[in-house]
Design brief:
Length: 110
């Protein structure tokens, strides 16, 4: 069994109601201990050969490596984009009590 690692997962949503709905679902399902809904940002990217711009709402999702596969599946099934940004970064340090809380809040109850 792999050791549990805290992760910071990043994604962007097209608007605040969609971001709030996804964040709520992730926390209620214990796939995330906390989701920080950030201020809108302006994204510039190339999509299908065309440079696009969009206002998006970034989410900072705190979870664990143990829950990542289920978190990814939940985001992919609920995200309105064809190809959502989904980046997981390992948390290599932090307040031990906070990281223990993240692990505790994301434990599967089933």
């Amino acid at each position: 069994m792999r050791p549990v690692t805290a992760l910071l997962v990043l994604t962007n949503l097209p608007n605040r109601p969609t971001a709030e709905a996804l964040a709520t679902e992730l926390v209620e399902a214990r796939l995330a201990a906390c989701v920080s809904i950030m201020a809108p940002c302006h994204s510039l990217y190339r999509w299908q050969g065309v440079v696009e711009t969009a206002e998006e709402i970034p989410l900072l999702i705190k979870t664990t490596s143990e829950r990542y596969a289920d978190l990814e599946a939940a985001i992919r099934s609920r995200h309105p984009y064809d190809l959502p940004e989904l980046i997981a970064l390992p948390i290599v340090g932090g307040l031990p009590d906070y990281l223990a809380w993240v692990a505790s809040e994301t434990r599967s109850t089933g």
